[in-house]
Each structure stands twice: as C-alpha cells, then as structure tokens.
Amino acid sequence: MFGMDARVALIIMAILAGVGGWQMMSRLESQKTDLAEAQATAIREGLAKYYNTVGINRLPESLEELFRESILTDPSLRKDPWGNGWEYYHLAVSVRVEDTPLTMQLAVVFSRGKNAVDDTGGFNSAEEFAAWELQKDDLGVKFTSRDIDLNRLVTYQDQAAQIIDRLENAETVGYLEAQTACNGADKPAWCTGENGKSWQQFNFYPRTDADDTAGVVYYQEQVLQKPNYSSGNLEDMQRLVTDLGLPAVLAQDPWGRVLQLNTNITGRTEPPFTASLCFSNGENCLTKRE
Q1: ∠ CA 67-68-72 to the nearest 5 degrees?
Q2: Most C-beta atoms within 10 A of its C-beta, which of 16, 74, 262, 279?
Q3: pLDDT tens digits, residue range 61-110?
Q4: Cα gap 147→135, rounded to integer Å
Q5: Are residues 157 and 284 in the same domain?
Q6: Is the domain of 190 the same as that of 102?
Q7: In this structure, are 73 and 196 located in the same domain?
C-alpha cells in the first residue's frame, strides 16, 4: 500500500517522535531534580531560622513544625517534586569551642528521588554526619548550627565581659564609699564592728544566695540593706543586671540559659573574694579574684 519512501519516512518519524518524547521526559526529570534541590535549600534555611528564633537550642522534631510556626509558608514545600514527603534526620551533639561547652545541632533533609526509596538513611553521630553523602537518586542538603553557635559565642563573650566589668565597678564603688565613710569624722558603727569585722574585711560584690558561707559580711546586705539576689532565677538575675546598669536581656545568654552568680566561689570569710559568673550548671564559669 505504501511505497518504500513512504515507509522509510514513517519509520524515521516514529524514531524522531520517540527521541522527542524521551528528551521531553528527560527535561521534566531535570526540572524536578533542580526543584528538589531548591526546595531542600529552602527547608535548610527554614531550619536555620527556626533555630535562631524559635528553638534557640533545639531543632524541630518534624518539618511540619516549621509550618506550624510559620517559618515556612509555601505549602508546596511539604512534598518533594515527586509527591513524597521529605526525609529528615537530626541529632544534638556536645562540643567545646574555645573551652566553652556547646550543644551543636546537626540535620539532613533529602528527597527519596524518582524511585521513592530512601537510599541514603540518617546518621547517629557527628562522625557519621561528617561522612554522610546522598546515595543513588536521593537529593538533599546537610544542616549544622555551627556558624550560628559561633556567632552566639561571640555575643556571649561580649555579654559576659560587660557583666564582669560592671561587677568590678560595683565592687570598686562600694569599697570607695565605705572608705570615704570610715575615714570621715563621724564614722558609722559598722566601720569597726559589723559582726566582728572592720569595713576592709567586707565583701563588696552584690550577694546572691549561691554563697551560704557563714561569717561573711556583705556591704550590700549589711550596710546598704539591699536584698540578696537568687542566682539562676530569671527575674532576680534581670534585677541584678539592671541594678548594674545593663539591659535586662543580658540575664540570659544567646542559648537561653539564665545567669548564675556566686560572689564568693571559694567560700572565704574575708578578702580576697572570688566571684564566679556562669550561664549553666557549674560549666562555662568565668571567675574574677578581688
């Protein structure tokens, strides 16, 4: 029914149609791959924002929490381009940076790709995270809070330095006040006999309940009649830093830990006294000896 030329033409057209269809499918898959990589990057940025603003010292337990907190608002990010949910694994690891204990957050987010199979899996340690790589057609990204925590560390160090500076200043001011009063013509009685101690033996740091050493005379408490502060109590620590002339927000460090202050960490009953400033339970303490 057809001549040879017509049959050859039909065969060529069929081949060309097949090649064109394959190329179109290839382009579609390539577009999905590019989209998956862009979506994974957007989710990683969402994790960073969550850690910075909501979690502070933790990552969400599931990616859905990013939507509940309005960190992510594009509903298309809930599924990968193949219509499957994202794989999400995360882990908190303890590290020390510049002798400061930190809890660093590690996570991976990835699509199972076209085959919809999790070929990569998660991780259970910092070492496994470092070696983690995508397998087969899986597509995704790693997340670490390292840079965020390093920036927080700089903020913490500046914050602690401000508090220490104000503590030293408060101690100096108290000492000079007492010296002026006790060198005057009308010496107050406390100059020579407050609980058996002269004013030179006073502790001029502000007192917190962290010091329970018997026999210590605090200038703030005994002479100025100011109440003690409760170490580690947010409200009291905010009152302390504002009394020192600093913003109340400095009572918490960038990880949300509350200031703890002991102005007699060595338990002495007379000078020299050592103050200890911490933002955790006995760790990360900075001391200043009189």
Answers
A1: 25
A2: 279
A3: 999 999 999 999 999 999 999 999 999 999 999 888 777 778 899 999 99
A4: 26
A5: yes
A6: no
A7: no
185 occurs within a structural domain = yes
Cα distance between residue 13 and residue 19, in whole Å: 10
- Sequence letter at residue 275: A
Identity of the amino acid at 216: V
Q: What is the pTM of this model?
A: 0.80
CB atoms within 10 A of CB 169: 12
Q: Would 12 be classed as within a structural domain?
A: no
- Examine the domain organization and report whether 77 and 175 are in the same domain: no
Q: Are residues 39 and 139 in the same domain?
A: yes
Q: Is residue 252 included in any domain, yes or no?
A: yes
Residue 80 lies in a domain: yes
Range of the structural domain that residue 53 is part of: 21-144
Number of domains in the chain: 2
